[in-house]
Amino acid sequence: MTNNTPELIESLLVPAEKLWRAADLSAVREGRQQSEAEIPLIIGQSRAVQALETGLGIRKPTYHIYVAGIEGTGRRSYVEARCKALAKQMPTPNDQVFVYNFDQPLAPQRIPLPAGEGRYFATAMERFLEAAGNRLQEAFEQETFARQRGQLASAFQEQEQQLWQQAQQQAEAFGFRVIRREDGIATVPLDATGQPYQEEAYEQLSQEEREIMEDRGRQLREQLRDLFQRYRDLQRTMQKRLEELRQRAAG
Predict the structure, then answer these.
(1) What pLDDT digit, counting tens, does each position of 155-169 carry?
(2) Is 156 helix (H, G, I), strand (E, B) or coil?
């Protein structure tokens, strides 16, 4: 290596300001804007493009188009762009509003409305429901409704008490008592003092005494079956009349 090596290296060095070049991005932006206005192509899929164009030209409600392919071919971009371009050439579709079907709850009714009016319909329905709720609240708070509801409740309680007394009389004849529980109505045996048996006292009974008591319990429940059915019918009748009263009050 010669003595002028440092000078040679120095002459070959490239200044930092020469290692990069500023690019004019205005042309890139302009080209991008132009390309966005155009519909991209699917690379190497001219037949697929033709099939899609044919499918988009078919006007049938139950006709569908399925597009599949490997990634990177541009199929999704092309389909979206083509559909958007086609949509711009077609009239704006109607709004589709679905409302509750009282005859068939699982099949809501469809109401077509001119484009843009669906939101106004929804707003009007919200206001209607709010006003109807206030009106119903006022109706249920009126003195006439309260009085009629009270009379209906009193009549139900009187009939319920009569059925309950009949059930107790039948139960006492068998040495039992009818009690109400959270899960329904039950019959419990009574001891010599007329009080429900405690568990320990019941366990001290002989096998024969327990069998006799269990047999009486079965006979009692058989007789009370009809009475309890009348009680359930009375409850359903009460609910039905109360609902009719509410409907009359609501107008």
Answers:
(1) 888 888 888 888 888
(2) helix
